[in-house]
Prior knowledge:
Oligomer: heterodimer
Shape of chain B: globular
Number of strands of chain B: 11
Strand content of chain B: 15-25%
Number of helices of chain B: 17
CATH topology of the largest domain in chain B: Rossmann fold
Strand content of chain A: 15-25%
Helix content of chain B: 40-55%
CATH topology of the largest domain in chain A: Phosphoribosyl-aminoimidazole Synthetase, Chain A, domain 2
Shape of chain A: globular
Largest sheet of chain B: 6 strands, mixed
Amino acid sequence: MTEFSLSCPAPFGEGETVKLAHGGGGRAMARLLETLIRPGFGDAALALQHDGAVFDIDGPVAFTTDSYVVKPLFFPGGDIGTLAINGTVNDLLMCGARPLYLSVGFILEEGLPLATLARVVASMRDAALAAGVKLATGDTKVVDRGKADGLFVNTAGIGHVIAPEPIAPDQVRAGDTVILSGDIGRHGVAVMAAREGFGFESAIASDCAPLTGPVLEMLEAGIAPHCLRDLTRGGLASATVEIAEAAGVAVALDEAAIPVSEAVASACEVLGFDPLHVANEGRFVAFVAPEDAEKTLQILRSHPVSANAALIGEVRAAPAGQVSCRGRLGVARVVDMLSGEQLPRIC
Amino acid sequence: MKFRDEYRDPEAASRLAAAIARTVTRDWTLMEICGGQTHAILRYGIDELLPARVSLIHGPGCPVCVTPVEYIDKAIAIALTPGAVLCSFGDMLRVPGSREDLFAAKAKGGDVRIVYSPLDALAIARTEPARQVVFFAVGFETTAPANAMAAFRAKQEGLKNFSMLVSHVLVPPAMEALLAAPGNRVQGFLAAGHVCTIMGTREYEPIAVHHRVPIVVTGFEPLDILEGVYLCVKQLEEGRAEVENQYSRSVRAEGNVAAQRIMREVFEITPRRWRGIGDIAASGFGLSEAYRDFDAERRFGAVAHDGMENNECIAGLVLRGEKKPPECPAFGTRCTPEHPLGVTMVSSEGACAAYHRYRGARG
Lengths: 347, 363
């Protein structure tokens, strides 16, 4: 995370906060856009002052949207701004698309310090530049104090599909190899630690990152993954169960092969969480034909964001819809989605 | 991680499983007390490594599960009282009361806050003096010292807006009640290592002698549990009934004396109702006379509650070790983690939840 600094003399006063008028469509709103948001996005934004963006795209297009409501807004390894860019960029990549343009919608709570907004805007600029996308259009609304948790962000994105074959859960077939791009659970533990003040915050940073490098290289190298899925809320467990159910196949994972950092494993022990259920923001699984496995691993391991990629399991014909995980003692257990919220246990 | 991996080593596990198989000549039924042990057994498939003659049944050691339904109702009523804050450990929030759970109370506007320690609730009381802050103090001997410390500090600081809704339970009286019940199947216990870390092992000796039952204080890692099973069946095969300490890296015979002192200062032994099991004499803690001012039941007066249970749920039989979760006709069909009929399907330490999580809807 880069430190935010204004490139021109401070356009707003120290301690200034978001007012209802900033969303009113009048002078205050124009000033917020002109002095904070547009300069904040800088090179990452298309220089447009119109109701929408217009551009040409050849061929198939992927289109996705996501809203971000994380609390706290800032956490080790990222903030709501980096999440909002990387999350949508990663969703496009999972469709086999090269991410091109994003829209940004802010919902600001009255009373939010403008300095906080400026910090988020700067993070979004940096994340967009790092992911190679342009912020094409945007919107800002202000709601009454108490009606939002500081700020909410929605991003939508479009990308140019470059995968030669369809990438979807129903393309997954028995015999496929399951490859995980790195160690799991960092984001969930980092956010929970930052939110609750457990005292092990410094040890764990979110994995929040764009997956652009490894995914585009895979696709450009001619690998035709049957399915790609980024691991977000619900973790590796939810992602694999969803795919197994949609594809009508079984997924057999090997627990010993799934990378989990020592810090995350220890935090999960203390809180009673299964790392398979903990959220990630910079990891994905790839279901590939076995003959593509080695090359996929090689490509993934050559990028820092996926340097710890590992082969973690395989797809079987039956039982349909079931994910199992072979434990350290050799006995397989069923892996299911998390039910409800993740709640720390009593003892 | 080295420390944990040592206790999950597959080769050591097969050596222990082989030693158990060599030792056993008859059928034995053992009960692990603690829900944490139950989850480890299911997660690692320890029961599948044991010979068919050794059967593990699951005990009542899930603090969330045995908290009586009327206390959930009381907590909900307090949460819905204007000006009150109900602080609870997270896994109590999904536990069904007579009509609803604490999540539902929160959705209705009740001020329910998840805390990780009773001292967090105390901190809320300090920073929000205009609100009555209540900590839902449940659990076994493991959570009692920290909860006692919260009341102790509140008294020292003269905090007028902090109180505790106490439903604390104790392991040894429950073991005695299970052993005395008609149709008891338990021939040996794996006692809960964390409880014994606090309380020591001496209070288990009269139970072992009187009921002629081996009690092995056992840890929570796969190798701990396998070794606990081995020591327990060895005693049974040799006709011994002693208290043995498998978890000696944490448990000393006298326990944690400082923790016991603060518990004695703040709590007194009272009769308690156990959800699914019933009333057991001298089986829990309540606040002692000197701490009555911090008793939420006194501060909020008689709180209306129904104390109604779902008729179809067999959580009581599960908590007493009389049935295993998959034997329940509702398991995985009418009762799932999303739509639980009873608390053993909800709690992170509940036996039904463990079977559903690690064995799937068919158990």
